[in-house]
Amino acid sequence: MFPYQNYQESAELIRSRIGARMPRVLLILGSGLGFLGDQVENAVCVDYDQIPHFRPATAPDHKGRLVVGDLNGVPVMVMQGRMHYYEGYSPEEIVFPVRVAKLLGVEFMIVTNAAGAINTGFSVGDLMLISDHIRIMGESPLRGENLPEFGPRFCDMTATYDPDLRRMAKEKALSLGRPVRQGVYYYFPGPQFETPAEICMARTMGGDAAGMSTVYEATAANHCGIRTLGISLMTNMAAGVTQNRLSGEEVNAAAARAQAQFTALVLACLAEMK
Ligand code: HPA
After folding, report:
1. Taking the model in full, what pTM does it have?
2. Which of 24, 91, 228, 241 has a beta carbon 3.0–4.6 Å from 237's, enabling a disulfide?
3. Going by CA atoms, what residue is nearest to atom 6 of ligand 1?
4. How far is Cα 6 from Cα 12, in angstroms, rounded to an integer?
């Protein structure tokens, strides 16, 4: 268990680097979607390995740094590279930066990911606003001693993905001429992609998209009162939906193709988080 003091020490180091500009929105960028971090203005970059108690991100294409500055006029803290369970990190380690963000004054989180479409009505390239998630495997990031500074022992999960933010994002997407899907994110711990049988199970249980991230960060954000918007990019149809085999290269290629649409939506949503 990490003591509260660890979170404070990390926040203190970041504060010493960014001065008086306190971020309002935490942006966690998923596989192949890190490019938004490069558009931050007045950026101060802090590598994870310079922050006490932070762990490095090892996933390919995850740079492993915080970028603090302005995006579309909104003070943001961008995690360029996140930690995943499949890298060997514990759920508590994965959510550490979210709690540090809380101490820095963050009120909103936009969390993005690449995902496989379980819902056969979806297509590659679709964006899905996460309405809810299912996490059967992998323990809760809130397991162990509760830190009441962040939230209650038994935390309500009814509105983990803020309904008002979702409504707002849906309208923004419509006005950009690129309507989005909404659905349930089904978490798999990875790093292997799922078997077709696992995807059938997830569909039966109500999952629309399969992915290996996000649920821990969203749970911790909900616990400490950060309002969350989750956006999944369908980089592939999930295993067994088509005859195609899955690969990390395919995921990154699809993410690169979605760059413009994705950027436009995130920037439009940010403007509403002023
Ligand atoms: N499954 C799990 N995670 C993913 C997938 C998938 O099909 N595509 C991108 N991330």
Report:
1. 0.95
2. 241
3. 116
4. 10
